[in-house]
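Long-time lurker. I teach an intro course on protein structure, and each term I like to show students one example going from raw sequence to a predicted 3D structure in token notation. This year I'd like something fresh instead of my usual example. Would anyone be willing to generate the tokens for the chain below so I can use it in lecture? Attribution to the forum is fine with me.
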Amino acid sequence: MDRRESIKSLFVGAAAGSLALASCKPELSTVEREALSTGATNYGRTPEEDAQIAALHAQQFFSEHDLESLGVLCALILPANEDFPSATEVGVVDFIEFMAKDYEPFQTPLRGGLMWLDHQANKLFGAEFKKLEEGQQHEILEAIAYPDLHVPDSERPLEVRFFSLMRNLTLTGYFTTETGIKDLGYKGNIPNVWDGVPQEVLDQHGVAYEPEWLDKCIDQSTRGTQAEWDEDGNLLT
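-- Reply from a regular --
Happy to contribute to a lecture. Here you go:
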């Protein structure tokens, strides 16, 4: 398993937990329902939320130099392969820029971490991090990419915590894009053809389908037909 596949497997596990929690979220509030009913393309956001997002997009937090460094770093964390582009190529840098503006606690660690990378690059190789050869960049990152798991995150060096944050943001940004979802192999709710419980399983439990229900429920030629019931609750189609 290569590094990209290892990262993907880690993200799948984390995403599964997130989806499980998301499925248990409480019922929508009145405001959220009204927002959904009045704006089909705003994903349930209130006008205030839309205004806040527009204001964030109008700002710029990172300098152009920082954005270029982020692009190099994101591509090192999740590089392109034969089938899919790198994290940088699908706009993850824009995602990190937005997150830094939206969540202030990210700002100092991210900007400070980029400064540390340049300082370390200049000290070791006499150039900015983004201008180094890839092998030199990897050499710097190797020192901060694998923290001691026995040490609490709050006690780890700042540069190690910076890289952990960058890795998390890069993965989140990439695997929530259309490209990243395809990379995961997630199929979503795609209808398939079901021919019923296999005959050997039915035989094992001593049960069988009634011909009438077979015609109604396992006739794939009618799988696009919506079910209808009569007033007594009997299935018609």
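Some talking points for your students: The chain has eleven helices and no strands. Residues 60-190 form one domain.
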